[in-house]
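Example record

One chain of 106 residues, shown exactly as stored in the release files.
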Amino acid sequence: MSFRFGSQVAAPMPRFLIDYHCNGHTAQDCEGVELDSVEQAGAHALAAAPQMFNDLMPGERRECAFSVRDESQGWRLKIDLSLCLEKRDPASDAIDALGELTEYSS
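Predicted C-alpha cells for this chain:
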C-alpha cells in the first residue's frame, strides 16, 4: 500500500519483527513495529533489554538475544546479550586486602 500526498506518493514504512531468545526460550513477534530503518529497529529492541534482566538473581547468568526480521528478507540484525550478576563478598575483599598489605610490607 502507498499513500498519496498531493502529487507525491509516500512509500509505506517497513515493518520489523523483533524476536526474543533467552536461556533456550523464544518469543516470536507476530505483529511487528513500523520503523524507518533496521538501525531504529535495533534501538527499539535494545530499549526492551532491561526488562529481560530485571529479575536476575545473584550468581545467575542469562544469555539473551534479539533477532530483528523484516517481512521479506528474514533476519536483518542479531543482538546478543550476556549478563551475570555477582554479589560482592566483603569477607573475601578483606582477605585480598590483607594479602596485598603483606606483599607490600615484605
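Notes: The radius of gyration is 23 Å.
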